[in-house]
Amino acid sequence: MIPDMRIRAAFALLPAALLLAACGSSDTADQPADTTSAATTETDAATGLNSRGAVEVELGETATVVQNGTTVLEISDTSLSPDGCDANTTQPGEITKQGFSATVQVGPSTITQWLWASDFYYVDADGKITKNIDTSDAEPCSGPGSNAFIDLPPNSGADGRVTLDIPNDAEVIGYHTTQGGQDIRVEWALPENVIPSLTEAPAAEQAPAAEPAAPQSPPATAPPVGFTGAPNGDPQPLVGKTIDYCMDGDMYQPGTTQFTDGTTGWTQECAGQ
């Protein structure tokens, strides 16, 4: 009788023990997953896109857009240059006009114009967006390549240049197009201080100042040739004498000369007049 009672008591305690064991194991099994958000431009490992849904690369690196396993767009050899670009006329101290050069390779789809200037935008350090259509003064940079990305056939490529009016505080250049039913977004992270470095024109080399020319003495005047006294021998240079005027008239012998020192004489200069 006593053993039967012990067995019954043990079975009665078994559910309680199992319940306690289940409660003890739930402390770790039910912990929520870490949902810390990524940084603004950190790429999602699953999609390859950043938080704005863009393929993000550094300026100069190749950006490849793949959709449904097909490469629809590849942009490479990107660079910025102010060559051929005038100053932005709306906000010249805050916006810099640049030529954005790139090589574009398109996939099987085509649109009217790839890298259309109106499809570009900029992102500052606070994540604020400014569209190129709001910064542009509609004055394109000069030079070839501005129409290279228009009406490209499928599976083709081209080198070209787009005029961008970039805010000086921009840290990212973005491109987003929905033409032809596409939804493509690419962003290029700019190197630090790249815009100020591009806008600062090198100081013109100044030629050394020309040394002032030494004062030149007036050309020496040859002394008159003649006599100051009675003619005797050949006429001689009359050093120290300067002709004041020739004494003409019937009462004077031809060649008679008045010198500036008040004396008179005869000179070949006056005789030859």
UniProtKB/TrEMBL annotation:
UniProt signal peptide: 1-21
Spans annotated as Disordered: 203-241
Keywords annotated in UniProt: Acyltransferase, Signal, Transferase
UniProt-recorded Gene Ontology molecular function terms: acyltransferase activity
Regions of compositional bias (Low complexity) in chain numbering: 203-214
Membrane-spanning residues: none
Protein name (database record): Acyltransferase
